[in-house]
């Protein structure tokens, strides 16, 4: 069985259709941001296009729980993927596809349900857009922590020195702990470094760090439009999810770079022995 996260920009592509058509053991995994991207804007136009291929393979679609709930999940390795899956929505996805077709054929009741989902999606995307202007400043502050020699290593994509590795891990752990302390639903208890590394918030911090380095390597993000920063924020979320599954189907090369970088860091941590957990990371 293969389970791939599908970026919203790949929902209408031949690559998704080919992947699903190649084997009944190939599954596409949808998170709530894939749904929001499908619903936002002109809902009764965008949703049908976005879900057309998924509707051809309804029993090969896996629907995840909302990101807010996934952030609260424990980091035990056993059952890690299973805990993220919304079993009811996954089971009922074929029914959703039938209702989608009914709405397309003019069913007003189902159309109104879709429009309500579209309003919720627009609201969430607007909230991300409102926060987007702070991101270039955060990248600039992170850049200040690196020496000229370290910035050269980042720019040329050279192997990190031990000092740069330690500095990077310090940033990731501090970002994780800060996010957990301010998140409305963080994991209730973290008992080991392995469990910390398996939480969504830790892996999102890893992906955020990789994304930040991507901008730093290109000179920074000053002057970048807020809507582009919002798109990047969603890319980081897709890349984070992909680290829990078998990869990312996406047409966005930046999203793929973030995923590959985050996956590499997480795989290195997984192979490392005796990783210590900071005392203030234990809940």
Q: Give the overall shape, derived from the CA principal axes.
A: globular
| SSE pattern | EHEHHHEHHHHHHHHHHHEH
Rg, please? Answer: 20 Å
Distance between the termini: 35 Å
Binned, the helix content reads 55-70%
- The secondary structure category is mainly alpha
Main beta sheet strand tally, sense and closure:
4 strands, parallel
* Regions with little confidence, pLDDT below 50 for 5+ residues: 274-280
Strand segment tally? 4
Give the percentage of residues in beta strands.
Answer: 5-15%
Query: In which order are the strands of the major sheet placed?
Result: 3-2-1-4
Mean pLDDT, to the nearest integer, reads 93
Number of helix segments? 16
What is the number of independent domains? 2
Write up what this structure looks like.
The protein is built from 16 helices and four strands. The chain folds into two domains: 127 residues, no CATH class; 150 residues, no CATH class. The chain starts with a strand and ends in a 12-residue tail after the last helix. With 283 residues, it is mainly alpha-helical. Helix 2 packs across helix 9, helix 12 packs across helix 14 and helix 14 crosses helix 16. Helix 1 links the parallel strand 1 and strand 2. The radius of gyration is 20 Å and the shape is globular. About 2% of the residues have low confidence. A four-stranded parallel sheet has the order 3-2-1-4. 35% of the residues are buried. The longest helix has 24 residues.
Notable features of this structure?
283 residues, four-stranded parallel β-sheet, 4 strands, 2 domains, mainly alpha, 16 helices, globular
